[in-house]
TrEMBL record:
<dbReference type="GO" id="GO:0005615">
    <property type="term" value="C:extracellular space"/>
</dbReference>
<protein>
    <submittedName>
        <fullName>Cardiotrophin-1-like</fullName>
    </submittedName>
</protein>
<dbReference type="GO" id="GO:0097058">
    <property type="term" value="C:CRLF-CLCF1 complex"/>
</dbReference>
<keyword id="KW-0964">Secreted</keyword>
<dbReference type="InterPro" id="IPR009079">
    <property type="entry name" value="4_helix_cytokine-like_core"/>
</dbReference>
<dbReference type="GO" id="GO:0007259">
    <property type="term" value="P:cell surface receptor signaling pathway via JAK-STAT"/>
</dbReference>
<dbReference type="GO" id="GO:0005125">
    <property type="term" value="F:cytokine activity"/>
</dbReference>
<dbReference type="GO" id="GO:0097059">
    <property type="term" value="C:CNTFR-CLCF1 complex"/>
</dbReference>
<dbReference type="GO" id="GO:0030890">
    <property type="term" value="P:positive regulation of B cell proliferation"/>
</dbReference>
<comment type="similarity">
    <text>Belongs to the IL-6 superfamily.</text>
</comment>
<dbReference type="InterPro" id="IPR010681">
    <property type="entry name" value="PRF/CT"/>
</dbReference>
<keyword id="KW-0202">Cytokine</keyword>
<dbReference type="Pfam" id="PF06875">
    <property type="entry name" value="PRF"/>
</dbReference>
Amino acid sequence: MEVLSVDLPMCSERSWTQQKIAVEIERTHKLTLSMKFSSGQLLSIYVHHQGVPFGDPNFNPIIQPFPGLPLPTLSPADWLGLTDKERLQQNASAFSNLPVYLASVKCQQMDLNPLEDELHRQFDSSRLQCLGLASNLKSIMCSLGITPVPDVSAERLEPDDAFFMKLTGYHICHLFQDWVNRCEKDIALLAKKYPV
């Protein structure tokens, strides 16, 4: 699976005014709000097409982390203890790697559910949204003079039996939704510091 990346131009925080930073943060926040709906929709559609036990209300497996895609769960105190730089870096890393995992799950679903075009389209749309969000997050970091640290690279998902492929896809869709929810809160917090 080819890893896609977005190259940003070299920049200096001196080239950004406070207003331009605020506008970029607001634009990114609007994207995360839009993605909250689409990430929930992807998870719902995904679960619908996987069969038993995925649609069972009692089906609640522990979500597993993946390389470059840790669990976005922190206690409120730990979350508030993070710096803006730490929050932005964690989000930028997650959304830089999510496209690789979403593309892998789409490939698996094309084998498992070859006729479900809407599901495949949702994966493509979600992957593109993640690429856009990763670019926006890195742009905000650039505007604030934050140098991104190298990401832990995503690893290609290896084929497995059908159930484990479905379970892996479930984990990825869930992590996508969880990271979108976390990022929206992180950017909302940042927006309060840089009002338009």
